[in-house]
Amino acid sequence: MDLLLKNHKGQFMERVNFPLDATVDDFKTFFYEKHRFYPERQRWTVNSITGPRLTGRKLSDNGVVDGTSLYFKDLGVQISWRLVFFIEYLGPLFILPLLYFFPSFFYKPEPLIRYCSQKCGFIMLMFHFLKREFETFFVHRFSKETMPIKNLFTNCFHYWVLCAVGIGYYLFHPHYRPVLFFTRGAEKIVLFVLFFVFQFMTFMTHVTLCRLRPKGTTVRGIPKSWGFQYVSCANYFWELLIWVDIALFVNTLTGYFFAFAVLLILASWAKKKHKKYLKEFPDYPKDRKALIPFLF
Q1: Same domain assignment for residues 226 and 253
Q2: Are the C-beta atoms of 109 and 145 separated by less than 8 Å?
Q3: Least C-beta-crowded within 10 Å: which of 118, 134, 175, 251?
Q4: Considering its fold, how many domains does the chain have in total?
């Protein structure tokens, strides 16, 4: 069958011939060998620039027949999602210990007293990112293999600068003093314990999502339990509570700012995923919210 290849502006590139049983991988490999855009950089749509994306196993599964026009867009240099997660979580694991153990490099030399909030805050932050690294390699299964490398800098800024530097610098500052309202021992203990409860709940939601997606596939299912009976994105809900807990525990403006930023980001993601669930599964529970039980 003859196929017409066009660029993302609709300009004609070339006419090629493929057998009727050709696969999408065959097509992308052919294009790579001729034009040097490796398959992960290629995005193809069928019959129009805004048409359905070329996915699946065979070209014919996408409605591709003789005379079909395929539109190409270069997605730019790509990086694997797993590597992105590894890098963005790795930054805080270096930055936080530097601020905590080597204060003389970042603050004026003066007598240093480490308060419980600082010690426990350090433990909480380090545990969070170590756990996230573990999940990256042993739990997460990604729906997409790669993302544009330019997005890596945004992700790293979020965790390296806003979180590690923003929270860590003021939390470990020699002038840091716990605010009186949150210095009661019982309150600190409750927040510290809740932090690990939320971590466990987050881990279990990630395991639940992992089990719904067979390895090497992009299959999605309807998650249940561990909070999913109330919201579509229970993993986001527990993640949000983790950062609210940390903000209350360390009690710095940067901590509250970061928690608010997390809320805005997760709310946006949850809304999109919730709509996708409703569209994909006709029997999806209609009483579930997107992020916050009974509210949103």
Answers
A1: yes
A2: no
A3: 175
A4: 2
